[in-house]
Amino acid sequence: MKWLVVLSALVAFSECLHRMPLIKGKSAREYLEERGIWEQVRQQFPYRPMAKFAQTGTQSMTNDADLFYYGVISIGTPPQSFTVIFDTGSSNLWIPSIWCTSPACQNHQKYNPYKSSTFVWNGEDLSIYYGTGSMTGKLVSDTVEVGGISVAKQVFGVSETEAQFMTYMPADGILGLAFQSIASDNVVPVFDNMVSEGLLPQPMFSVYLSRNSAQGSEVVFGGLDSSHYTGQITWIPLTSASYWQIKMDSVTINGQTVACSGGCQAIIDTGTSLIVGPTSDINNMNSRVGASTNQYGDATVNCQNIQTMPDITFTLNGHAFTVPASAYVSQSSSSCKTGFGQEGTDQQWILGDVFIREYYAIFDTQNKRVGLAQSV
């Protein structure tokens, strides 16, 4: 009888979770490569993954051409649907609007406030820096529905202008899942409103990114799904409750430190596709795994060597997380590339989708910690 009660409680709890399915679609890079204009565009819009982590008073983003996990939310009454990137590296929600005249808005869904009976005009200016341009717009509020959860009077941004690079992005906008402390205009993030309004069983969310299948990836609001991982969850305290930032001790290959010597900081970020670090460290890692790096920092390897390439171990707050070559090398029809991005000299790292595909990530806002477990 005791186990029946426990099982019933677990079933009831699982039914309280809210799932946001993610689509693993084609990235901007793939779209541009198919059209033969990737090299031209990348020169015009250089890759600057660290741009969004510079706190300058505006909410920052970057133009990551490799992002391909998107989810569909709805806004307004009746609902209007939009595809967004769920980004743990930013805190604002924004989407294109009917007031946007930039080319980037013409091939995306645009929010029409006049078709929503729950729309409220705010009017404050919003500016989001990309590193190669910006999104400018206004703040408004309306009902936002995410994974079956309706948040009334959610404040969000609607664009009036957008950087040209957004023309090539499959997603319409961004839904930030970091903390309010870095939100532009101090807007309360969508997740924070879910928690304060008692819409979730627990003040946490978790992210599962599928390795190969176009289906199966999801954000779970209100808890975690034990079917997505195996083994124990390792909980790591945040060093800063702004981004999901933690302490990284070292990066090693075959027991030798190849990067982050003496320790550094790392941000768990679903809004960055690669593992990003200082240029010298990333170059060293690529060299150690036998990759050749071009002028843009792309590192290619012989596809036939993947099975014999070494694992890379990231030690986070005393706990080792190993990423095999099958996870850090991506294979296309023409080549195989390592999933490492380089920028700058600061000891700041981003553990993006390359890492999160290997480790199920749980984001606990109440206890200010991140949980990591081996994905299945």
Annotate the secondary structure layout.
Blueprint: H1 2-16, E1 18-21, E2 23-24, H2 28-34, H3 38-44, E3 59-60, E4 69-75, E5 80-87, E6 93-96, H4 103-106, E7 120-129, E8 134-146, E9 149-161, E10 173-176, H5 190-196, E11 204-208, E12 218-221, E13 229-237, E14 240-241, E15 244-253, E16 256-259, E17 264-268, E18 275-277, H6 279-288, E19 292-293, E20 299-301, E21 312-316, E22 319-323, H7 325-328, E23 329-331, E24 336-338, E25 340-342, E26 348-351, H8 353-356, E27 359-364, E28 369-375
Parallel strand pairs: 3-7, 5-10, 6-9, 17-26, 18-25
Antiparallel strand pairs: 1-12, 2-4, 4-5, 4-8, 6-10, 7-8, 8-9, 11-12, 11-27, 13-28, 14-15, 15-16, 15-17, 15-21, 18-26, 19-20, 20-24, 21-22, 23-24, 27-28
Describe this structure in words.
With 376 residues, the chain is an alpha+beta fold. The protein has two domains: 18-207, Acid Proteases (Cathepsin D, subunit A, domain 1, Beta Barrel); 225-375, Cathepsin D, subunit A, domain 1 (Beta Barrel), CATH 2.40.70. It is built from eight helices and 28 strands. It has helices at 2-16, 28-34, 38-44, 103-106, 190-196, 279-288, 325-328, 353-356; strands spanning 18-21, 23-24, 59-60, 69-75, 80-87, 93-96, 120-129, 134-146, 149-161, 173-176, 204-208, 218-221, 229-237, 240-241, 244-253, 256-259, 264-268, 275-277, 292-293, 299-301, 312-316, 319-323, 329-331, 336-338, 340-342, 348-351, 359-364, 369-375. The strands form four sheets. Strands 14, 15, 16, 17, 18, 21, 22, 25 and 26 form a nine-stranded mixed sheet that branches. A six-stranded antiparallel sheet has the order 1-12-11-27-28-13, with no helix packed on it. β14 (240-241) and β15 form a beta hairpin. The longest helix has 15 residues, at 2-16. The protein starts with a helix and ends with a strand. The relative contact order is 0.15. The model is unreliable at 1-14 and 55-63 (pLDDT under 50). One of its GO terms (molecular function) is aspartic-type endopeptidase activity. Its EC number is 3.4.23.1. Belongs to the peptidase A1 family. This is pepsin A. Residues 1-16 form the signal peptide.
